[in-house]
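Lab channel / #folding
Pinned by the channel admin:
"Please post every new chain as: sequence first, then the structure tokens as a reply. Keep commentary short and put observations after the output so the thread stays searchable."

First post following the new format, from NK:
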Amino acid sequence: MEQGTAAQAFAAMLRGLYERAGSPTLTSLARQGERQQPSVRLPTSSLSNWLTGQSMPSQHRAVQFLVTYLSQQAVQAGRTGAPPGWPRLWEAAVEERRQRRGGRPARPAPGSSPAPQMPVRGRFVAELRPEEAVSEWEVHRPVDVPATVPGSLPLYVRRTHDEILRSVLGQAAGGTSRMVVLVGESSSGKTRACWEAVAELPAGWRLWQPLDPSPVQALANALQEGIAPCTAIWLNELQRYVGEQAGPGSEQVAAGLRKLLQDSTNSPVLVLGTLWPESWNALTTLPTSAKPDPHPQVRALLEGRAVHVPATFEAQELADVRTAGGHDSRLADALAHARNGQITQYMAGAPALLERYHTAPPAVRAVINAAMDASRLGGVTLMTEEFLETAAEGYLSDDAYDALEENWLRNALAYTQQPSKGVRGLLSQVRARPGANGPGGLRLSDYMDHIGRTEQRFSAPPASFWRAAHNYLPEPHLVRALGRAAEARWRDAEAAGLYRRALDLGDVEAGQYLAWLWQERQRDDEARRVEEQTAFAGDGDALEKLLMPLLMQEEYQQAERLVREAASRGNSTAQLHLARALTVDGEAREAAHWYAEIARCSDPDVLRAYADDLRKQGDLDGARAALRAAGDRRAMGELVALAAASGSPAEVEQAAREAFAAGEATPLKDLAEQAEADGRSADAAHLYRDAITVFERRRRQRDAGVDLIDFVAGSRSLLDHLNPAVLPMPPGETWALRQLVALLDGTQGVPAGDGALTEIAEAGNPWALERLLRRMRERGQEQEAEALLRSEASRANPWALWVQAHRAVHDEQVLDDDRGALLKRAADARVGQAVRVLMDRAERAGKANEANQWALHAAARGYTTPLWELVRGREQDGRLEAAEHLAWQAPASQRSRTLRRLAQGRTGGQVMPLLRRAFDEALAWAPGLLAEHLEASGEFVDAERFARLAADAGDRQALEDLATGRRGDDPERQWQALLSNGMTAEGAPAVPW
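Reply from TO:
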């Protein structure tokens, strides 16, 4: 295929689809993108360039939405949609473009070899002292009461989540690397539970918390250098290490942790994390169709890792507290005064802090409110006095501001830092350690942070807050995060200022957001200036977008000036462009200079393109080095191709194995299949078995990482769907296992194939066991198959127990008590489907409380389907109150999502009480839905009030929809001004900016 063919073909496909869709206006397409949740940005200038072939979309979510939407419009018009193979055509066009420019830039990284000896980090668990829990490991300091027991921590009362946590730690102590994340509200006991569990690790284990130079950088450095076995990594407040708040490198850290947990040669390690429910939701929520996963590596890392920590103690747990309270006066005090079973919150001093906040002078409340908004909107954890002083001004009334004393800030900070009952104050001073790179500053109390996220949910910060963020926050990713928060609240002028500041600090992603803001307003000159600055800051996509029209218009001198300027500022994409052009021009010496710069970058795309250049020049050793430096799965696959062209069979096999370990399976599969085709059956079987070993290790890690096993993931035939009594094949099938069995069947006979299946089945693979059972039955060996099934069930094999329970459910001859006992055995073996059936049985028998407990049992262990099905079933049966009551009982990380799904299915008078309660509980989606229903029912004043509250909470869509619907009757053009310019910080229509 000639250069440019794939891009031209994709542009032609897109243009034809656009015409079949009725050639909608570009503005209407952009508006449709904005209506998505989250929005898909489709600047009209970009749409025009895509349709004319001047440029090509590089963002997956944009192209996925655009093609899907145009296809739907075309089909509705009676025309054909997009061709089935369009994603491959787009991918080929993207790859074609990357081959021309080499990919995106990245930060420099040394290509040195790993240290000869893996660093040992942390301290021996056996050396840790109880008093360090508060001072070093971030356990909340307990309240002081008279006659407290010696030591800094109260007696510990175990709860349900502690047993789950200890099960995970037991697996780690037994030699399997594990990760667990405790998810619960502020002061619910997450960190203390981790501390108590760590104390039970065997001798020789160490506990290490990455902190310096920053939490995410410390962890990234350690993952690169290596982490010694028997290390427990303490990631309290996990959002500091992964996700948007962690800043650049978050996805690499998540990928590094996944690799660490999968590395059996360096196991065991234990990763302990804690998160608030809303942070868990932000990091794990699946994207909708046409939208990419914002945190793919983070989401994959966290899947199945949650242990939910309830905010309140259950009845039996309170009884245990009462028993322990006889030996610890702090527990007795908490039991006497805590409300609604919130023992841990009382112990952490939450009521005292809340009272101190609510009775504080206006200046103190203004400072705390500013700190709350900085944390909840941008993830800012450490704040300077200058930031708080400037931000707090807008939270004061005119009278309160006029009454400020000369030393008001000093007095306010003294009030906020005063301890209460021995617990740290509303704010606490964090001092930078001598020699450490981390900054110091003032930190908001964890519990007050939690309060701010509820009490200020529907409040937007004043102008002084955005000004303080612009002037006094030094971390670019936090400035950008606050820009995103401002834009989500339709404060676009403030967002633009923050994006500009973040870009000036070197954040290229902020430049992309700022360029989009200008493009939406057809301000092409401003957008181009931003794109140019973004390219100079290192963004390869921005450089390509600027470069392409120059080349098409044959403005080569201007293109060269652009590339040279970007290359001199460290843009590795520009350096690759320049090196290639100089090579063509015969300027070998200068080209070598730029290639040397490229060799020091860490961008996999650029390094792979560099390796391709070296290969063409005949420098195969250099190409191998560049590919190894790239290190991604594609690079490892290209290493195999390089070895196949110039190396020995042993080198090819070694390269294929390395690629397989990196996640690129095709080379090893091809190698095994070629050996089989050549008649080298033993070699093929050896390769298949090696692949199976890796697959099985990953399967065991996945199974160990979930609290309930899901057996629905396997393939299912049409016959299986028609007959619910037939179980589908369970998960566990791999190409290596399938082809090994076929090879052995054909070369050594069926017993050899059975032997391989038996070996893998005994290791716990459910597909191997089920395949073996089916083969035996197909040969008429029914008794032998049943004996094997009973044997595996006696060994507590989850699949065998589920097969027996499933049969009993569909066999009318089985007594109901026996059926229930089999289901409970399967549930005890962590079979999620058994829990689901037990829930259904209880619901059909009218045992609503028992059904609730099974549904909540599954939900607390990450299996949410039963809970939603029970809620939906009751809703469909007309038991609205029962459905809603259960939805409110869902674990904190799932409650909001469950209630929203319930509300979206209701109409009219049925939905309003639920929406109003959701609003009272500060659920972020509630005011937007309230505005939608109120507008539809003609209650226009209340609709606008709730739409504005929704915008203040970060959901501008409801207010945009309302403004769009009302601009036809807008004599003062207020709604049009809102649509054109957004709002001021105070909520009025903004002037053009």
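NK: The first strand starts at residue 123 and ends at 124.
TO: also worth noting, The mean pLDDT is 86.
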